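Weekly structure sync, notes
Attendees: PL (lead), two postdocs, one rotation student
Agenda item 3: pending single-chain targets
PL asked that the sequence for the first pending target be pasted directly into the notes so everyone works from the same version. It is reproduced below exactly as submitted, 604 residues in total.
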Amino acid sequence: MADVEQRNQNGEIVRPLTEWSNVEFLNAIRNQASRDFQRRIPAATKGNVRQSLENMLNFPALRNEFYDALINRIAGVYVNQLSWNNPLAEFKRTAQSYGKTYEEAAIGLISARVYDPKQEYLGDEIYGTYTPHVETAFHTVNREEYYPLTVNETQLRYAFLEENGLGTFTAQLMDRPRTSDELDEYLHMVNLFPEYAHLGGYYRVHADDVTDENISDTEAQARARKLLRKIRQWVNTLPIKPSTRYNARHMPSVVNKENLILFMTPEVHAAIDVNALAVLFNEDYAKTNQRIIDISGQDIGINGFQCILTTREFFFCWDYYYGTQGGVINPISLGTNYFLHHKEAISLSPFVPAILFWTGEGTREDVEVPAGATVSKPDFQIRLQKYGNPAVFPTNVTRGDVVQVVSTISMDGYPDFAPKGGIIYEIASEVKSQFTRISNTGILRVGLDETVNYVDVRARATYKNPRIPEVPSVASDTLRVPIIGDGLLGFNPGFVTNLNFSPNTPVEIQVGQDRQLHVIATMTDGRMPDVTNMVTWSTSDENVVKVSPVGKVTGVNTGTATIEVTVFAVTQQIRVTVTAGGQTQAQEVAEEPQTQDVAEEPQK
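Predicted structure, written out during the meeting:
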């Protein structure tokens, strides 16, 4: 007997039973039976088959072992090749025997940051942790069903009257619960299609009904060509770039054209030109036809359904347990009851793109604004953050200090929204100090001699309005930052005579270590203010030492470099030596500067 290329739910190779003779069947069971069974039941021949049956049925222990082998071992591995199979079973995941829950995760893309060549990046940027956005979906075993089966002794005796009766009887017996299970699994899986529609997961594309019997053949052919053209369009569109627009969770999905499949009704399948699709996929007709899965329009449960274009990962279904248990004897009917159990997860992936072609309205590409209403601009969130410490959010800034302005921008209804060129910062109010300024990346520095009591910072972004994409749109928001603390009058060119580091000794740090340096200015009137945030910092060798705009030095590689500060053409240098010692966690050793005067009140 030739083997059939077929596998059961557990992935085991299966073969047909209908051609087995009763002798072959009994010997197959006997070869796998216990030694007691083999001792009491001799090898079957045409002459002793009936006697072997009587011996088994007269001894309950032998009868139970025979039934168990018949149902669990023989019929579980060898099945009728004409059995109906769930056509969606090929999309199931690998069976999982441990744990009833699968966690599916999707990782978002990383937003680019604007590089500022004038900014020295701190250890927080270099050694910080950057975690992308992650979405998860949990798929749990939600189908636990069983199918009862009774092996009747009378029917079994009739099966021995024909030479191949036992194999035919067993194939028919097991086909009933197996086919019932396959059909129920299929119905559970197709029910996911309308469920996904109720969740708003499909990207919808309008397509005229190609199966309308009230239109002419010419119109039907024109509609079929139009539908095929739209399918071609989306087959070519989905792989172009990762997109968040076409799945339920709006997470970026990457599509390989080779992985695309089509679910459609047999009527639509008959109407479209599959040869044209084969050309699109650059493959022969047979292979393209395998991409098309026919589903009854009544089963799909979506009015106006034509087809769905998605990937092979659309379904997230997997078996937790599949097997037969039982052996319980009914003393009245003399039947033995068995139960086919099937436990599995029936779910779908919210991260997989799915395009629904139907006769209803398509997904809108823009936002329809009612008459008299205005298009909403992007929403800005702007606030202060302590420079070098993202966990601290001050509400003001001290004269002579530095803060980080951070902002986010979003637009309702547009998950892909992103400003073109990032967010640009500028000072929108009058300031008096030449040192009060803001960088492209939002670093706000307030001069030590600043006399105003606040500074307005404007965040500005250029974006594309989906309604008028050809015209750049601008959104902005302004944050008023109060300025507090004592200032310093007379901090002007010609008034600074000298600069000194505090402490004014050579610095030694390890690779990966940070240290905060301070600079003290000596003025013509004897005052000695801390001008750490006012001077310009530079390093002679960035491969050895990096320095931030506020004087934090970071060891990069072993060696020696010179740090130089400048203000009003007055300069000072200090030597920094970097030693080995392993990459250490960044730490800051701040020395409080020593001053000899009390800062004066700023001018009003």
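Discussion points:
- The two ends are 104 Å apart (CA to CA).
- The chain has three domains: 86-365, 379-484, 496-579.
Action: rotation student to compare against the earlier draft before next sync.
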